[in-house]
Amino acid sequence: MEVLAILLEWGPYLLGGIAVTLGLVLSALALGFLLGLPLALGQVYGSRLVSTLVSVYVWFFRGLPILVLLFLFYFGIFPALGLDVPAFVIGAVVLGLRGAAYQSQIFRGGIQSVAEGQMTAALSLGMTKWTAVQAIILPQALRISLPGWSNEYPELLTDSAVCYAIGVMELLTRASQIVSQTYVTMPVYLVCALIFIALNYGGMYMIRRTEEHFAIPGFGNQEVRS
Amino acid sequence: MSSEYILRVEDIHKNFGDREILHGISFDVKRGETIVFIGPSGTGKSTLLRCINQLTEPDRGRVFLDDEEITNCGLRICGYRQRIGMVFQNFNLFDHLTAVENVEIAPVKVRKMKKEDARAKAMEELRRVGMADWADHYPAELSGGQAQRVSIARCLAMDPEVILFDEPTSALDPELTREVLEVMKDLARTGMTMLVVTHEMGFARSMATRVIFMESGQIIEQGPPSEIMNNPQHPRTREFIGRIEH
Asked: What is the DSSP string of B37-101?
């Protein structure tokens, strides 16, 4: 009973971590998308130099453990730039930059799997390459990318807990604080885990709905209407 | 005053690596002509069409559309391509768009036409190729013949002055081939200038104003269909016609 009382008492504080965790995940997803898509376009359509730079970027952010990246930015890059920002921002930026590396490769695969004839036909109608990319290639590439892209959400959600290490007040940080205050261990971490599971489930549900919304008969793995 | 020739092709050369695909192709096209290119596969007929609208850049030679040079013209090529339609063997319809969206997208994106006007124009072109009832269907839901007719409508929506047909019926069975050829015949009768690469000898015989026989990247012989098909002068033309008609 005592445990229940403690959970009820600290519950609101723990639940407050949901906003922080989701804030981290959604800003990182957005940053990853806004940066990942241009990176993919640069890698596919850019000059050799641009494409090489993108490869280096991807190699760097995918090659380092996330905790190492976090420390590099928290103790090194942000202070060196004279930027005094909350740990939350650093966490979101690192997750976002790393997500951009992964997302760029998802989008690159999507762009490259659009049949070559689509670009040819667009150009033959007088479109510029850029118009063709916007109007013809990307709408198809993004749809093709969506199933792979949807993995980014649970990945970021679970990765976001690493921001505990730099003191972002997300779910795990709050759970740990409660544990050290109350000495109730397992029940608190269990509730923390359940919240992560719920967030994961809810997010995936919304992504599936999005996929259905944009589905086109006979396109990708969609069935043809009869 | 526009010139008598809508299209002039001068001494086009194209290599892919060490392989010379086209060596020195020249011909002129008058307004309203239907020119049919015939010849063995791998002879460079498709490459020639793509060199005309610069989807493939020729290594040497020039192309003129209505007396304006369109080779080496940089970004202005987009403007010229609006005036030269192209129909592909594999249709290349935009898979994420319905039939009517396929037809209206170029007028909207390239010509900046208003969406309602473009929709009306697109429906008109779909009616012209007998596909108005299929306007809301996606490419995957159409037969090959229907898809090809939509792709012709897509081309027509830009009001081209010339249309290049790159083996438009090669991916179709005989029945579907017929429905596409009917549309092409209607077009030819309306005076559209057409350059057609095809193996459909019946179409060449009945619709061509001129047949050009190509082999190994060169024009071997050209003339009215009756001459080329009934009384070819060059032994290689004779051999090809003999092979294909028996």
From this structure: EE--TTSSHHHHHHHHTTSS--SEEEEEETTEE-TT-GGGHHHHHHHEEEE-TT----TTS-HHH
